[in-house]
Specification:
Elements lengths: L1 H10 L17 H7 L6 E4 L5 E6 L6 H4 L4 E3 L2 E4 L4 E2 L7 E6 L6 E2 L9 E6 L5 E7 L4 E7 L4 E4 L13 E3 L5 E6 L40 H11 L1 E7 L4 E15 L5 E7 L14 E7 L4 E8 L17 E5 L6 E7 L13 E7 L7 E6 L2 E9 L2 E8 L4 E7 L9 E7 L9 E2 L1 E3 L5 E3 L5 E6 L2 E2 L2 E2 L2 E6 L5 E6 L6 E9 L4 E7 L6 E6 L7 E2 L15 E7 L5 E7 L12 E7 L2 E3 L2 H4 L26 E6 L2 E3 L10 H19 L2 E11 L1 H12 L5 E5 L23 H7 L12 E6 L10 H12 L4 E6 L9 H20 L5 H4 L1
Parallel strand pairs: 41-43, 41-45, 42-44, 45-46, 46-47, 47-48
Antiparallel strand pairs: 1-2, 2-6, 3-4, 4-5, 6-7, 8-9, 9-10, 10-11, 12-13, 13-14, 14-15, 15-16, 16-17, 17-18, 19-20, 20-21, 21-22, 23-24, 24-25, 25-26, 27-30, 28-29, 30-33, 31-32, 33-34, 35-36, 36-37, 37-38, 39-40, 40-43
Length: about 800
């Protein structure tokens, strides 16, 4: 009966919200000065460790940029005027630096009012191609790394709607580029088009249990517009700007040269389109051509994929994950399911891997089989490669050593582990560039090298191991021993010489890059000198605290104390907890900590760290594990574990003496927002909550969500119990809801926040809904971010810091 009453309330409308016509606001000065800073550049370094390219961009877009025309079609967001993704992050400047030089050089000849993106090293790494977007469209530019000179080599008629439109020919003298076709039909204005009939979608009885995708095609006009915007003509473009047509108009989705450059693997999208799945599940044909454009063979044809078996490990039948072997001149490999792609079928092996050598006329060769679902291959030599698989349901991953030249040779399991177990993670295999300019395993006399994050019970100590692939014996070559800094081991520049690219940071030292030699006892060579732009919070006390849940599970979080806080006086301050729940299948993995107190304190738009300047204690990235061992699924006890996590966090910081436990807020984004709404509905632990871009009614995501594999009809009680919308009548704590108007994340469409707010308002809860115009699941316009911070600050000041405490609560 209660549910019926709730439904009646919602159906009555109650859409008459108390609206506020508020312009964009700015947060207090203490926060504002941390937001409006120049960000450090993106760093790209060539494989020899000779040159560094520094890519600079603004920290945020503007609301004017987000307001440019946008079409949302088949899972894509496109600016139809410029023909590039409408949410593309653009760079505004480039510098080049010899690693041996102190200072970087400004690149000359860059476009005026540059909006650069999609950077592509040439095969010999002497040049870099990139796009520049003008008011008219997308151009191709070339950067000469040695001279630091840039030049435009095409007009603004490149088609970047389907992603990166640039591929290098092997000779470093030309590019294969997607250009707009001539005389394209006009796009249809769907808002003004007169319908010729209804839109009809049919079901013929087969199951199509798909996620709640967004930005899908909706009608014939959308189909027309998608086809026009996805269509390109491929041209060979010389570095002098000369164009030669290479292939006729088609909807090109992928272009990939063979390592030797003699062949090109091209995938094209075809009809029929779908209104229930994105473009990457439309029919696709993959064809091999020679580098001169001559047809070799159609290698794969994939039908429309609207229906898949149930489960996260479900895949389609036939060839999938097709790619070039990086260690061979021109050899394709792919995976095929042995269980019909159905995870519910019993099978000793889930996938088998095939290869086919140029000229691609023979019978494909079986290389190996995987026990779990195929993930990837690290190619090495003729006789050595490492294949990885995984299985979501038990969080298992295996790594196997196999001999590609002799598939009959026994495949050896190198690792068999839980991929959520960070303490046992052996690391990733180091690679080096081969004669084709591709990355392959760095192998010396049967020895490979692993670079690991190094998480342990005592902290994080990144390492480099040498492993003998025959005996499986390992030897530690290097382990970072910093206890006051964090050293990230990025890549081996030359493992034989011991030269490793590393990044070192501390809470007060901005991350900078160095070259460390692990064989010679010589000083670190610093190659960047980025300054700390957040000096006002550089002396804030920061530590990782560890504590236990009431069932004994180990938890942790990164604790920040307010600016100027006297740790000896221990004044009782308000606190903000920021978290995101994660599902586990074992308590051992769930209880591990990957927090590092030595990470640089870097407030970003979504961070709560800003509020240390406003007198708040912040517990960031607090552990919120949801565990389900054996036959039990994590979500079977979601609410109980959620509340236990929240109580444990408050108890832990309260025990340290820093907080007033009656003035604690909790916040989260996306699934973290879902967490917040549940915590406020089913506990009295918090003074207020902040929920950003969340989903609150799980019946609107009936075929699974997050790590929930069961559908609504299989587990209706789980969906009901986990949905804050269904328990809106229990909400007694002030809740700030924030959502991007154009959220494109699966399941978190804005309707979720709108309907939840309707329910809360209809039932008399204290709530505020802020919808950020033009914003997606993450927020990017400066105006939006400043207003977001203002809203959060107003809410925290009113309902947390200055909350009125009753006599009963103060006891």
């Amino acid at each position: 009966m209660k549910n019926f009453v709730l439904i009646v309330i919602l159906l009555l409308g109650l859409n008459s919200w108390a609206q506020e016509n508020t312009s964009y606001q700015k947060p207090p000065k203490e926060i504002l000065e941390l937001v409006d800073v120049q960000r450090a550049p993106n760093v790209q370094i060539d494989s020899k460790g000779e040159y560094m390219v520094l890519l600079y961009r603004d920290s945020y877009k503007t609301i004017a940029e987000l307001s440019e025309k946008e079409l949302r079609l088949a899972g894509l967001r496109i600016n139809p005027k410029t023909n590039i993704g409408s949410r593309t992050a653009f760079y505004t400047n480039i510098k080049v630096k010899l690693l041996s030089d102190k200072d970087a050089r400004q690149v000359n000849g860059l476009p005026k009012d540059a909006r650069m993106a999609m950077y592509n090293w040439s095969p010999d790494q002497t040049k870099m191609a990139f796009t520049n977007t003008t008011e008219k469209g997308v151009e191709v530019w070339i950067l000469d790394i040695k001279t630091a000179e840039a030049k435009k080599i095409s007009e603004a008629n490149v088609n970047a709607n389907m992603g990166n439109p640039i591929s290098w020919f092997k000779d470093n003298k030309a590019l294969l580029v997607n250009f707009l076709p001539d005389n394209l039909p006009e796009l249809i204005n769907t808002a003004e088009a007169i319908p010729e009939g209804p839109t009809i979608t049919t079901s013929t009885g087969s199951k199509a249990q798909n996620r709640t995708y967004q930005d899908l095609l909706k009608n014939a006009s959308d189909e027309h517009n998608f086809e026009q915007l996805a269509s390109s003509v491929l041209y060979k473009l010389s570095l002098e700007g000369e164009k030669t047509k290479w292939k006729e108009k088609a909807m090109y989705s992928d272009v990939s040269f063979s390592p030797d450059g003699n062949y090109v693997l091209i995938s094209t999208i075809h009809k029929p389109f779908s209104y229930i799945v994105p473009y990457y599940r439309f029919p696709e044909i993959t064809t091999i051509y020679k580098s001169n454009g001559e047809l070799v063979k159609v290698i794969n044809e994939v039908p429309l994929i609207e229906e898949l078996p149930k489960g996260f490990m479900a895949v389609r039948k036939g060839k999938r994950s097709m790619n070039w072997r990086s260690d061979k001149a021109a050899t394709l490999f792919w995976a095929e399911a042995l269980d019909d792609g159905d995870p519910e079928q019993k099978a000793d092996f889930r996938d088998e891997i095939f290869q086919l050598d140029a000229p691609f006329s023979g019978t494909p060769k079986l290389l190996c089989k995987t026990i779990n679902r195929f993930y990837r291959i690290d190619w090495g030599t003729d006789n050595t490669a490492i294949i990885h698989d995984y299985w979501w349901n038990n969080r298992n991953t295996k790594s196997y050593v196999f001999n590609p030249a002799n598939p009959s040779e026994e495949t050896v399991i190198l690792y068999d582990r839980n991929y959520q177990d960070k303490y046992s993670d052996p690391g990733n295999f180091s690679s080096k560039r081969n004669e084709y300019g591709k990355y392959v395993l760095d192998i010396e006399n049967d020895n490979a090298f692993l670079i690991g994050d190094g998480f342990t019970e005592k902290g994080q100590f990144p390492f480099i191991d040498k492993i003998n692939l025959k005996t499986k014996q390992t030897k530690r070559l290097y382990q970072s021993n910093y206890t006051d800094k964090l050293e990230n081991l990025y890549a081996a520049i030359d493992m034989l010489k011991g030269e490793i690219l590393v990044r070192i940071e501390s809470p007060t030292e901005y991350p900078n890059y160095y070259i460390r030699n692990i064989k010679k006892k010589i000083a670190l060579k610093q190659i960047t000198s980025f300054e700390n732009p957040f000096k006002s919070i550089q002396n804030v006390h920061k530590e990782v605290i560890k504590y236990k849940r009431d069932d004994g599970l180990d938890l942790s979080g990164t604790l920040y104390l307010p600016v100027g806080y006297d740790i000896n006086r221990k004044d009782k301050m308000p606190m903000i907890i920021w978290a995101y729940p994660t599902e586990f299948k074992d308590k051992n993995s769930a209880g591990q900590s990957t927090a590092n107190p030595n990470e640089f304190t870097y407030p970003y738009y979504g961070s709560m760290v800003y509020w240390v300047t406003r007198g708040y204690v912040v517990l960031d990235d607090a552990s919120f594990p949801i565990v389900g061992e054996g036959e039990e699924e994590p979500n079977d006890s979601f609410r109980k574990q959620l509340v236990a996590n929240g109580k444990a966090a408050i108890d832990a910081v309260d025990k340290l003496g820093y907080i007033d436990r009656n003035k604690v807020a909790v916040g989260g984004h996306s699934y973290g927002a879902f967490m917040v709404a549940n915590l406020l509905s089913h506990s009295d632990l918090f003074a207020a909550g902040i929920a950003r871009s969340g989903a609150y009614n799980r019946t609107l995501t009936p075929f699974g969500f997050q790590s929930e594999e069961r559908n609504y009809w299989e587990a209706p009680e789980v969906y009901y119990k986990m949905s804050p919308f269904m328990h809106a009548d229990k909400m007694k704590t002030p809740l700030l809801l924030i959502h991007g108007e154009a959220d494109n994340n699966s399941g978190t469409y804005p309707l979720q926040s709108e309907r939840y707010f309707n329910a809360l308002k209809g039932l008399g809860a204290t709530a505020r809904l802020v919808v950020l115009p033009k914003e997606s699941h993450g927020y990017s316009a400066k105006e939006s971010i400043l207003h977001l911070l203002w809203e959060q600050d107003q809410w925290l000041e009113k309902y947390v810091k200055n909350r009125e405490i009753s006599d009963e609560e103060s006891e």
